[in-house]
Task: inverse folding
């Protein structure tokens, strides 16, 4: 999967509507690609999965872990 494909799938992923194989592919890419990881975090904020220090809504476990780790390193929730 390349960055373009991951971008196309991120919304579906955030909504936890991908199947297990797609989820693995997306997560593997995001682990390796800081650019797509950043997009995922931005998307998590955009769809209100992030409520300051709290994660809300459904969403894959991996996504929650990514967002939580970002919250730990970015406690102010700065958006550039
Ligand atoms: Zn990428």
Result:
């Amino acid at each position: 999967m390349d960055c373009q494909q991951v971008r196309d799938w991120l919304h579906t992923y955030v909504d936890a509507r991908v199947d297990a194989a797609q989820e693995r592919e997306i997560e593997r890419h995001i682990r390796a690609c800081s650019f797509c990881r950043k997009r995922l975090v931005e998307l998590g904020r955009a769809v209100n999965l992030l409520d300051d220090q709290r994660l809300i809504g459904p969403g894959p476990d991996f996504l929650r872990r990514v967002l939580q780790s970002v919250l730990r390193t970015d406690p102010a929730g700065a958006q550039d």
User: Anything to note?
Assistant: Residues 3, 6, 29, 33, 35-36 surround zinc ion (CB under 6 Å). The chain has one domain: 3-73. The first strand starts at residue 50 and ends at 51.
